[in-house]
Amino acid sequence: MLDNDGRSHRSLRERLAEWTDEDVAQHQLGLVLGVLPPLLEGETEGDHFRRCKGIFWSANGLGDALHGALMGLVDVGLLEQQPDEDGTVHGASALRFVPEPPTEDTPGR
Predict the structure, then answer these.
(1) Is residue 6 left, alpha or beta, with left meaning phi > 0 and alpha meaning psi from -120 to 50?
(2) Among 11, 41, 55, 89, which residue's CB has the most CB atoms within a 10 Å radius?
(3) 11 CB contacts (<8 Å, ≥6 apart)?
(4) Cβ contacts of residue 51 below 8 Å, gap of 6+?
C-alpha cells in the first residue's frame, strides 16, 4: 500500500525484519521518516536507493543522523548487528530488529 507520495506504509520493524545492509537500513529509515526526496512516478525503492546512495555513502548531516539513529536503536536493544565471521561487529554490518522487544531488564536501558 502506498501513500500519496509513493511511500509504503510498512513500518521500520517490517522493513528490517531480515538482515539488511546498513546503507539500505538507513534508506528504509529515511523513507519511514519521510526525510528523503519522494519516489518518482514508477520508481522502485531499489531505484530510489541508487538515486539517494550518496546520502548514505558520504559524510553529510542527513546520512550521519540516519546512521546515528540506527546505532541508537542498536544501543537500546531494538536492532541487532550481524557480527563478522570472527565475531566482531563493524560500522557497516547488517542490521535487523530483534525478534522480541527488549524489556526494562534489557542491558543498555
Answers:
(1) left
(2) 55
(3) 32
(4) 37, 43
